[in-house]
Amino acid sequence: MIIAIDGPAASGKGTIARRLAAHFGLPHLDTGLLYRATARVLLDQGSKLDDIENAVSAARGLALLDFEEDRLRGREMGEAASVVAAIPQVRAALIDMQRAFAARPQGAVLDGRDIGTVIAPDANIKIFVTASPEIRAQRRSLELRGRGEKVDYPAILEDIRKRDRRDSERADAPLMPADDATILDTTDLNVEGAFAAALDIVGRAQREAL
Ligand code: DC
User: Fold this and answer.
1) HEC profile for 78-98?
2) Which residue's CA is the closest to the ligand 1 atom numbered 12?
3) Do the beta carbons of residue 141 and residue 156 sit within 8 Å?
4) What is d(CA 1, CA 136) in angstroms, rounded to the nearest whole number?
5) Residue 115 CA: which ligand 1 atom is closest?
6) Domain housing 11
7) pLDDT of 150-200, one tens digit each?
8) DSSP strand E in the chain: where?
9) CATH number at residue 100
10) To which H or E segment does residue 100 belong?
């Protein structure tokens, strides 16, 4: 079973993907980390984020040490990841490893922006998780505060809007629901409610496939 979870920043897709993976005993790949790690390598090199040649070799050369999570999860890296993710050659360099992960014999859960549309168009279950920008900015503020970062709500809301625009308007693999995705709006749901709704979507898809 391949479960594809897509959606904008701070929609709750990562939490839902992790919980579904644990529930079904499936491996999980947070594909945003690939773009965050690529951006991090470029920033550490002092390279510009839109230097295509360097960005492609950073993406191709990703190593385990580049995935040290704490720095990747911060606000700066999310924004930088969105810039490198708009480069088609970077996306192309990262496709094979994501498809190989999705093709594992036992199945997999992947979350990102283009899983249901590009990486795993044949996924058995596709969920597009969304929520209002204001709620997403609140969630991101709480998360960043928990990580000890300084929180400026209006700036975070502006970040979220800018990232939505950049991720949705890029030409290659833009953020959008696959035609056969089920939309899950988590604006009025807490974590438990969102997970229960996602489980319900999976259960329904499994029954329909019988
Ligand atoms: O999900 P995230 O916030 O960690 O993603 C960071 C950025 O990476 C996001 O703004 C756009 C990009 N991204 C992408 O283009 N495609 C994916 N499958 C995952 C992330």
Assistant:
1) HHHHHHHCCCHHHHHHHHHHH
2) 82
3) yes
4) 29
5) 18
6) 2-209
7) 899 999 999 999 999 999 999 999 999 999 999 999 999 999 999 999 999
8) 2-6, 28-30, 108-112, 125-130, 182-185
9) 3.40.50.300
10) helix 88-102
